[in-house]
């Protein structure tokens, strides 16, 4: 009897944008002349977010909020408040190339549940100061807003916002023992080093340039890049209860990193979603209901 085997189709490789190929070539040529030269160019790319066009739903979301500014030495951090009369304060921390307005759906849900909601624009995002952003600089901005708010009951952080809040970390409620009652993490990276490696792989950076990036972090901040990893720092974060949600089809932050965070963090409530990807998880009705229930209980 002849057995017919059905062959799986070969994976289709997406074409590389011409601009990316040109950038790769430029960096390779720079690296051939000077590792530091190539590093400087790559680091500017790594720390410069794009200013994405405003989506139609952003302005209505912010129209319901009161805008205020928190001063910092480098400039002002823009923040927005919904339901000022709420009994507990929840701070929302967005991800890379997002802004406070991206939280509009969740902000409405939390405000309707009786919570005071505050979201900030990170440096180089939205209406805040600057053109470039590093993880420690983001954490300093979140810290400034948290200090201005006083007592913070809960934090919801997405992607880079979670790495800044927990990996650096930000200190909450230091006048009341330093504990944060509730923490929600959405689609956060387990390893900030892996984020940098994915960036290096995309640009096909030589290993010497990637190593120079890691050395620069150590020189600037007095700590290794690995020390910011949530798989190392997460379990030490002083949250009474912490919830992690991550989608198994997240194309930006591999799902396996969420598993690693959960394995390293005893007591963390890890819930997987499916089919939402990296950004839709912020607006999915079932996810929002779970977050509201967790923060409003």
Q: Can you give a write-up of this model?
A:
The structure is a single chain. The chain is α/β, with parallel strands linked by helices. It has a domain at 64-190 and 229-296: Rossmann fold (3-Layer(aba) Sandwich), CATH 3.40.50.1820. Helix content is 40%, strand content 17%. The protein has helices at residues 18-33, 35-46, 58-63, 104-112, 135-149, 160-167, 192-203, 207-221, 230-233, 255-264, 285-296; strands at residues 66-72, 75-82, 89-93, 116-120, 154-158, 180-186, 239-247, 269-273. An eight-stranded mixed β-sheet has the order 1-2-4-3-5-6-7-8, sandwiched between helices. The N and C termini lie far apart (64 Å). 39% of the residues are buried. Residues 1-14 have low confidence and may be disordered. InterPro entries: AB_hydrolase_1, AB_hydrolase_fold. This is Alpha/beta hydrolase.
What's this entry about, in short?
With 297 residues, the chain is α/β, with parallel strands linked by helices. The chain is built from 11 helices and 8 strands. The protein has a domain of 195 residues: Rossmann fold, CATH 3.40.50.1820.
Main features:
disordered N terminus; eight-stranded mixed β-sheet; 11 helices; 297 residues; 40% helix; Rossmann fold
Query: What is the CATH C-level name of the domain at 64-190 and 229-296?
Result: Alpha Beta
State the helicity in percent bands.
Answer: 40-55%
Q: What's the overall geometry?
A: globular
Q: Determine the number of helices (DSSP H or I, runs of at least 4 residues).
A: 11
How far apart, in Å, are the first and last alpha carbons?
64 Å
Oligomer: single chain
Largest sheet: 8 strands, mixed
- Rg calc: 20 Å
| CATH homolog superfamily of the domain at 64-190 and 229-296 | Alpha/Beta hydrolase fold, catalytic domain
């Amino acid at each position: 009897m002849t057995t017919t085997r059905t062959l799986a189709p070969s994976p289709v490789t997406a074409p590389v944008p011409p601009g990316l190929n040109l950038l790769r070539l430029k960096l390779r040529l720079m690296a051939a002349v000077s590792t530091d030269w190539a590093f400087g160019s790559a680091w500017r790319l790594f720390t410069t977010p794009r200013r994405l066009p405003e989506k139609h739903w952003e302005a209505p979301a912010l129209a319901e909020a009161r805008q205020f500014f928190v001063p910092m030495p480098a400039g002002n951090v823009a923040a927005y408040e919904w339901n000022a009369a709420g009994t507990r304060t929840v701070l929302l921390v967005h991800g890379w190339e997002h802004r406070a307005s991206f939280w509009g759906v969740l902000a409405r849900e939390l405000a309707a549940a009786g919570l005071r909601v505050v979201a900030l624009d990170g440096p180089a995002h939205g209406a805040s100061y600057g053109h470039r952003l590093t993880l420690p600089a983001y954490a300093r901005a979140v810290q400034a807003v948290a200090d201005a708010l006083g007592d913070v009951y809960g934090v919801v952080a997405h992607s880079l916002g979670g790495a800044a809040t927990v990996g650096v970390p930000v200190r909450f409620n230091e006048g009341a023992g330093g504990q944060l009652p509730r923490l929600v993490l959405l689609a956060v990276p387990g390893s900030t080093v892996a984020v940098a490696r994915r960036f290096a792989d995309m640009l096909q950076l030589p290993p010497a340039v990637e190593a120079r990036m890691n050395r620069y972090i150590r020189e600037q901040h007095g700590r290794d890049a690995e020390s910011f990893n949530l798989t190392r720092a997460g379990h030490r974060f002083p949250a009474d209860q912490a919830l992690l949600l991550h989608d198994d089809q997240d194309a930006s932050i591999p799902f396996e990193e969420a598993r690693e965070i959960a394995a390293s963090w005893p007591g963390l409530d890890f819930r997987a979603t499916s089919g939402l990807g990296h950004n839709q998880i912020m607006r999915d009705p079932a996810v929002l209901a779970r977050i509201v229930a967790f923060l409003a209980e």
